[in-house]
UniProtKB/TrEMBL annotation:
Keyword Glycoprotein found: no
Entry function: Catalyzes the phosphorylation of hexose, such as D-glucose and D-fructose, to hexose 6-phosphate (D-glucose 6-phosphate and D-fructose 6-phosphate, respectively). Mediates the initial step of glycolysis by catalyzing phosphorylation of D-glucose to D-glucose 6-phosphate.
Pfam families according to UniProt: Hexokinase_1, Hexokinase_2
Hexokinase N-terminal domain segment(s): 53-249, 502-693
Region (Disordered): 1-23
Species this protein is from: Chrysochloris asiatica (Cape golden mole)
One GO cellular component, as annotated: cytosol
Protein's UniProt name: Hexokinase-3
InterPro entries reported in the protein's UniProt record: ATPase_NBD, Hexokinase, Hexokinase_BS, Hexokinase_C, Hexokinase_N
Domain Hexokinase C-terminal stretches: 258-491, 700-933
Classification via SUPFAM superfamilies: Actin-like ATPase domain (SSF53067)
GO molecular function: ATP binding; D-glucose binding; fructokinase activity; glucokinase activity; mannokinase activity
BP GO annotations: glucose metabolic process; glycolytic process; intracellular glucose homeostasis
Entry EC number(s): 2.7.1.1
């Protein structure tokens, strides 16, 4: 495959003839019959023709006012594009997911595939980045000419061609068993949704392959590479050539924050403030935006400068009506414009003695290289003559100058229009950075810059004119952006690596249906054993609550609610009109929860006395219900032996004691206080009773707060520990301890192990430590520390604050996962913790929170599914309708927890219709109701 074959007829020019008018007569486009040979009207005196030629070229003159108009109109169309308003004239302003200019730290070998920048050729590069210390290694590259039928054929053919070129190129490199990151330099307008996800909007320049527009070009390339069997390549980034050019800028000289390409096509990118890009949910930092100014087509601005030659060129192009601005600047079109003008002037007898040639009438026969050569002051007349003779023309002496004038007119206009567009970008930068005096480095790339002798200087001069407040340094890209693409690929490879490490870290948290169903079965087995009094991690404690409220309860009751986030004392008034509650929250300082039992219960009595005084209940001995949310073996309604503390409580001399007795002793120690402790209930029971008062189907109580647990109404005959085989008994499952005997098959991650090791009850409450609020924040903290140590988070910088236990509150999960919270608010929460984070970090932290809370909710759902299925089977029902009364901060505040629990129950217990009823007044009311039922039963037995 060699470059030369392509020259004579260029595939980018499909159709033959169109007739635009101008002061010097019709413009004829393509090859075909008729116009060949010489036109009769040859002007007698050369000066006339030069005047007429000047007149014709006058059309290419763009005044400063017109340039300012174009600059202003392009600027407003850029702002419309940024705000996501896409009227036809707006330029697309496509975010590229490149968030920072190169740090220079990037290292490694990268393969770069360039497609689309330089017309009918594809380039493959091997780029070695050596980081800050290493010395620069020049990329090695090879160019492959793309056959016209491939540029216009089926997309698969193009991508297979690319894959073959890659394979051929890599034969010369040591790639055996290496996975090489590949950066895809794809120079066409694309909607990017990630560094490696990019959908082609429309082909431009000489390309029009079928079956690609609207498709993810990375996917298409990956599929082609797979078909080619080049498994050593991993496509990790797709980059627009302007971005590659900008990123290629040597940080020492730049960093460049604008990338400008004028090659076959033209375009620019620049670093915009992320908060100005409506399509991005981002308010901090910058993002590189590809302007795609080639499609700028505001008639008011461009109309006056469009010539009949432009219209003729457009109509003869592959994409008529599109890329109007590009067709006045891009290298693919400059030659064609010159050809059209030359052909036109020749026909008018103003050039070449009125003679044309097949080549002159053949579209695409005059290329950028011809224009550049003919304009090159160093190449002199001889070269111009040679070029024209090559086109089959026999130019006269005066023709050379006139032809050069035509070239100059076309390329000067191109440079000035390009300058107006660049000035618009600089204006946007001045605006978005609120800097009038802008110092900026612009990276330039592309054949027009490389080959055209005057384009760069013309552009520079004009920009300075149009953007006076800007101090611009132009930095030509060394190797056409290949290195820049490798830098982006290095960043993408790092991010892809981070993604892989994140997936590996979070994979054990992603439980599938099979695992959850296994938990349900294991819980059922443990429930059955616990009920039979056999060894089981589920103690299945009888609560001596035999019935849920029936609404006939009446009276005033005191209630205590200990074991959740807050300790509360409540006065509960149960009347025909319903239940009125007055309550007071009291703090239980850590020195008390970790102190002696006597201290704890004295503190409780102090609070009761304080409450009685506040409520004017002095001297009244109201029946009291005690919600004590810890595992107790109850011997009766008012006798509960504390089995072990949980949730951070560790008061001494309590475990193994009857806590009702401990309370009564404390009351006894306090003079002049009389209290009648009637019942001790677990918070799950209190919650069930409290909700049961509203909904009589409520037969399950669920707590997901600081701790977690569930209770339900079991058939008495199934409760080995309690005599009787009719009726029901509420069973406190104490499911927090589920799996403490190793029967829980859910994988325990190293993070769970760290949380357990650091807890005051290692090896205990396994299920609780996977689910409840006291632990989720800590699990997340350990994961963040791990990801930080892998360099995935916070750029691997040590984060002291994350070393602090409990610094990552579980409530942060609820906040960070809330859909209404934009990323910036997530970042604010984390920055308040003193974490130095980027937006990518905030996204990763959110994903970690989601994985941890999702696992917790699903496990909780598997537990509830086991309970409701047990009740259904107990009653031999096909279908069961049951309500679960729920309380607990995590369940109530987390944005997705409750729906995930419900979804898991629905999936694992399809024959149960389960309603989750959130308890409004907490379990204190439930404790009062249990007390009321006990008092009512006591009364009926007394009479
Ligand atoms: C409510 C109930 C308490 C229960 C608590 C659990 O407040 O009234 O009895 O212990 O919820 O949730 P928490 O998030 O406070 O631990
Ligand atoms: C494409 C741009 C590209 C430019 C320069 C245009 O036709 O739409 O994406 O950057 O050419 O290659
Ligand atoms: C306790 C249970 C309680 C649950 C919810 C667990 O730690 O062992 O008794 O129901 O927390 O508060």
């Amino acid at each position: 495959m060699n470059k030369e074959q392509q020259q004579p007829c260029d595939a980018s020019w499909p159709s033959p003839i169109v007739e635009p008018m101008d002061s010097v007569g019709p413009v004829e486009l393509g090859s075909g019959a008729g116009a060949l040979g010489c036109s009769p009207e040859v002007l007698s005196h050369p000066s006339d023709s030069s005047k007429l030629v000047q007149e014709c070229l006058q059309q290419f003159m763009v005044t400063e006012a017109q340039l300012q108009q174009i600059r202003a109109s392009l600027l407003s169309s850029m702002e419309q594009g940024l705000m996501g308003q896409n009227p036809a004239s707006a330029v697309r302003m496509l975010p590229t997911y490149v968030g920072s200019t190169p740090h220079g730290t990037e290292q490694g070998d990268f393969v770069v595939l360039e497609l689309g920048a330089t017309g009918a050729s594809m380039r493959v590069l091997w780029v070695t980045l050596t980081g800050i210390e290493g010395c620069r290694v020049d990329p090695r590259s090879r160019e492959f000419v793309i056959p016209p039928e491939v540029m216009l054929g089926p997309g698969q053919q193009l991508f297979d061609f690319a894959a073959r070129c890659l394979a051929e190129f890599l034969e010369a490199f040591p790639v055996k068993n290496r996975c090489l990151p590949l950066g895809f330099n794809f120079s066409f307008p694309c909607h990017q949704t990630g560094l490696d996800r990019s959908t082609l909007i429309s082909w431009t320049k000489g390309f029009r392959c079928s079956g690609v527009e609207g498709r993810d070009v990375v996917q298409l390339l990956r599929e082609a590479i797979e078909r080619q069997g080049a498994s050593s390549l991993a496509v990790v980034a797709v980059v627009n050539d302007t971005v590659g050019t900008m990123m290629d800028c040597d940080p020492g000289l730049g960093p460049c924050e604008v990338g400008l390409v004028v090659d076959t096509g033209t375009n620019a990118c620049y670093m915009e403030e992320a908060r100005h890009v409506a399509s991005l949910d981002e308010d901090r930092g910058r993002v590189c935006v590809s302007v795609e100014w080639g499609s700028f087509s505001d008639d008011k601005a461009l109309g006056p400068v469009l010539t009949p030659f432009d219209k003729a060129l457009d109509q003869g192009s592959l994409n008529p009506g599109a890329q109007r601005f590009e067709k006045m600047i891009g290298g693919l079109y400059l030659g064609e414009l010159v050809r059209l003008v030359l052909a036109h002037l020749a026909r008018r007898g103003l050039l070449f003695g009125g003679c044309t040639s097949p080549a002159l009438l053949n579209q695409g026969s005059v290329g950028l290289e011809h224009v550049a050569e003919m304009e090159d002051p160093s190449s002199g007349e001889a070269r111009v003559l040679a070029v024209l003779q090559n086109l089959g023309l026999s130019p006269g002496a005066s023709d050379v100058k006139l032809v050069q004038l035509v070239c100059e007119a076309v390329s000067t206009r191109a440079a000035r229009l390009c300058a107006a567009a660049l000035a618009a970008v600089l204006g946007r930068l001045q605006h978005s950075r609120e800097q009038h005096a802008l110092q900026i480095a612009v990276a330039t790339g592309g054949q027009v810059f490389k080959r055209h002798p005057r384009f760069h200087s013309l552009l520079q001069k004009t920009v300075i004119l149009l953007a006076p407040g800007c101090d611009i340094s132009f930095i030509p890209s060394v190797d056409g952006g290949g290195r820049g693409v490798a830098v982006v690929t290095a960043v993408a490879a790092r991010l892809a690596d981070h993604r892989r490490l994140l997936e590996e870290t979070l994979a054990p948290f992603r439980l599938d249906r099979e695992q959850l169903a296994a938990v349900q079965v294991q819980m059922r087995e443990a429930m059955a054993k616990g009920l039979q009094g056999e060894a089981s991690s589920l103690r299945m404690l009888p609560t001596y609550v035999r019935a849920t409220p029936d609404g006939s309860e009446r009276g005033d009751f005191l209630a205590l609610d200990l074991g959740g986030t807050n300790f509360r004392v409540l006065l509960v008034r149960v009347t025909t009109g319903g239940v009125q509650i007055t309550s007071q929250v009291y703090a239980i300082p850590e020195r008390v929860t970790q102190g002696s039992g006597q201290q704890l219960f004295d503190h409780i009595v102090d609070c009761i006395v304080d409450f009685q005084q506040r409520q004017g209940l002095g001297g009244q001995s109201l029946p009291l219900g005690f919600t004590f949310s810890f595992p107790c073996r109850q011997l009766g309604l008012d006798q509960g032996i504390l089995l072990n503390w949980t949730k951070g409580f560790n008061a001494s001399d309590c475990e193994g004691q009857d806590v009702v007795a401990l309370l009564r002793e404390a009351i006894g120690r306090r003079q002049a206080v009389e209290l009648n402790v009637v019942a001790i209930v677990n918070d799950t029971v209190g919650t069930m009773m409290s909700c049961g008062y509203e909904d009589h189907h409520c037969e399950v109580g669920l707590i997901v707060g600081t701790g977690t647990n569930a209770c339900y109404m079991e058939e008495l005959q199934n409760v080995a520990a309690v005599a009787g085989d009719s009726g029901h008994m509420c069973i406190n499952m104490e499911w927090g301890a589920f799996g403490d005997d190793g029967t829980l098959s859910v994988p325990s991650t190293c993070f769970d192990a760290s949380v357990d090791r650091a807890s005051i009850n290692p090896g205990k409450q396994r299920f609780e430590k996977l689910i409840s609020g006291m632990y989720l924040g800590e699990i997340v903290r350990y994961i963040l520390l791990h990801l930080n140590s892998l360099g995935v988070l916070f750029r691997g910088q040590q984060t002291q604050c994350l070393q602090t236990r409990d610094i990552f509150k579980t409530k942060f999960l609820s906040e960070i996962e809330s859909d209404s919270l934009a990323l910036r608010q997530v970042r604010a929460i984390l920055e308040d913790l003193g974490l130095p984070l980027t937006s990518d970090d905030a996204l990763i932290v959110r994903e970690v929170c989601q994985a941890v809370s999702r696992r917790a909710a699903q496990l909780c759902g598997a537990g509830v599914a086991a309970v409701v299925e047990k009740i259904r089977e107990n009653r031999g029902l096909e279908e069961l309708m049951v309500t679960v009364g729920v309380d607990g901060t995590l369940y109530k505040l987390h944005p997705h927890f409750s729906s995930l629990v419900a979804a898991t129950v629905k999936d694992l217990a399809p024959r149960c219709t389960v309603t989750f009823l959130q308890s409004e007044d907490g379990s204190g009311k439930g404790a009062a109701l249990v007390t009321a039922v006990a008092c009512r039963l006591a009364q009926t037995t007394r009479v």
